[in-house]
């Protein structure tokens, strides 16, 4: 039956049945308005995170310790920009324009990941970001490869492949430093100390506090809960830290034989809320950098539009 002739309840039931049957929802399919809005929120926040996420690493481009490290870091940062672009494009299929999404970011209405509001104080932070932040992003995004919305799931497959390279390059920096001089080992440990807890916050609040999880899991936008993904990340990362000879800054971290998982200490949720609400160490600086970049690029966008219009006019004239 044509979607137009169906009652809203029947449309919703057919939609849920499709999701339950693991069929993908595509842009032209009927979808509940709240599903569309939830995806726009999550995908645009995800895109903003990728783009703002270029800034902490960008800080070290001019100070990378060798030409090779500089070239690798440049390529990684460009990948993150590319991820933002796939995600903005995927979100546009839901009927929001890129300009609207930028406006939401620049006005402070849209969120982006808390992790990018922390400063990068030493070269070891670049290793820690690749190892931990990209590592956490992969754990979260592998689950999103099976998201019910087709364009988001497909974007995630490519993004995960690139994040996997990013994670390895970060781990390799940490390995080099952990096997280096005493000062280098101390820098690596200091970076782990500062990035560990903020990385755990990337997975969002506890399941019981998570406003959107229930509905998003039912719609198979999210396939695993915030706490399950956080645990998965910790279980995978602790042996990696041991291999580096570094200590994770959590006295409560301990393997629990019965659960088959690591137990760990409580996250400072006060700090999380404060960073979400714009009061992290770098929130203002990050947002200002994005606003300035957007304003600074205005002439390029205008010139590109003028060029396209001129080309089109010439084509019409010639015809
Ligand atoms: N930061 O009900 P929930 C990367 C907000 S990409 C800020 O649990 P949900 C690549 C949440 O938005 C990293 N806000 O929400 C890279 C919601 O607020 P709202 C980004 C957070 O959506 C690496 C409220 O709290 N990845 O790293 C955070 O079901 C290196 C309630 O929370 C993604 O965005 C947070 N950490 O679950 C780039 C992945 N956590 O909108 C450069 C896609 C929660 O009601 C360098 N997103 N909030 O005002 C997701 O998987 C989900 O959106 C979650 C949150 C899991 C983040």
- Would you identify the CATH architecture? Up-down Bundle
Coarse shape? globular
Q: Proportion of β residues?
A: under 5%
State the order of secondary-structure elements, H for helix, E for strand. Answer: HHHHHHHHHHEEHHH
Give the % helix: 55-70%
- Order of strands across the widest beta sheet? 1-2
The CATH class label is Mainly Alpha
Instruction: Say what oligomer this is.
Output: single chain
CATH homologous superfamily assignment: Ferritin, core subunit, four-helix bundle
Number of helices: 13
Mean pLDDT: 96
Give the radius of gyration: 22 Å
Description:
The chain has a two-stranded antiparallel sheet with strand order 1-2. The chain has helices spanning 8-20, 33-52, 54-58, 67-92, 98-106, 123-144, 150-178, 182-201, 213-218, 226-244, 269-276, 283-296, 298-318, and strands spanning 254-256, 261-263. The protein contains 13 helices and 2 strands. It is 66% helix and 2% strand. The chain is an all-alpha fold and 319 residues long. The longest helix has 29 residues, at 150-178. It has a single domain (6-268), classed as Ferritin, core subunit, four-helix bundle (Ferritin, Up-down Bundle). The structure holds Phenylacetyl coenzyme A. Residues 41-42, 45-46, 49-50, 53, 80, 111, 113-114, 129, 133-134, 137, 140, 201-205, 210-213, 216, 222, 226, 276 line the site of Phenylacetyl coenzyme A (FAQ). One of its GO terms (molecular function) is phenylacetyl-CoA 1,2-epoxidase activity.
């Amino acid at each position: 039956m044509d979607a137009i002739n169906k009652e809203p309840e029947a449309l919703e039931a057919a939609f849920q049945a499709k999701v339950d049957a693991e069929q993908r929802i595509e842009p032209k399919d009927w979808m509940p308005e709240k599903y569309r809005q939830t995806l726009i929120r999550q995908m645009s926040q995800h895109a903003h995170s990728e783009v703002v996420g270029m800034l902490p690493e960008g800080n070290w481009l001019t100070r990378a310790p060798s030409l090779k490290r500089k070239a690798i870091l440049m390529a990684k940062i460009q990948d993150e920009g590319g991820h933002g672009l796939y995600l903005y494009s995927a979100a546009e299929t839901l009927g929001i324009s890129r300009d609207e999404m930028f406006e939401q970011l620049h006005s402070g209405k849209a969120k982006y990941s808390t992790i990018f509001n922390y400063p990068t104080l030493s070269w070891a932070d670049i290793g820690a970001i690749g190892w931990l932040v990209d590592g956490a992003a992969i754990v979260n995004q592998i689950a999103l490869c099976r998201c019910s919305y087709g364009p988001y799931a497909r974007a995630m497959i490519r993004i995960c492949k690139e994040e996997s390279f990013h994670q390895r390059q970060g781990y390799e920096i940490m390995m080099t430093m952990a096997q280096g001089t005493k000062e280098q080992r101390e820098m690596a440990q200091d970076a782990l100390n500062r990035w560990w807890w903020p990385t755990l916050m990337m997975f969002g609040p506890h399941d019981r506090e998570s406003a959107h999880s229930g509905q998003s899991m039912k719609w198979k936008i999210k396939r695993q809960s915030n706490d399950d993904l956080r645990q998965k990340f910790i279980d995978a990362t602790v042996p990696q830290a041991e291999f580096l000879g570094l200590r994770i800054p959590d006295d409560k971290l301990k393997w629990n034989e019965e659960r088959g998982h690591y137990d760990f200490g409580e996250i400072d949720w006060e700090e999380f809320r404060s960073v979400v609400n714009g009061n992290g160490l770098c929130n203002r600086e990050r947002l200002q950098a994005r606003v300035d970049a957007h304003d600074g690029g205005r002439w390029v966008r205008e010139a590109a539009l003028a060029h396209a219009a001129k080309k089109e006019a010439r084509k019409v004239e010639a015809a």
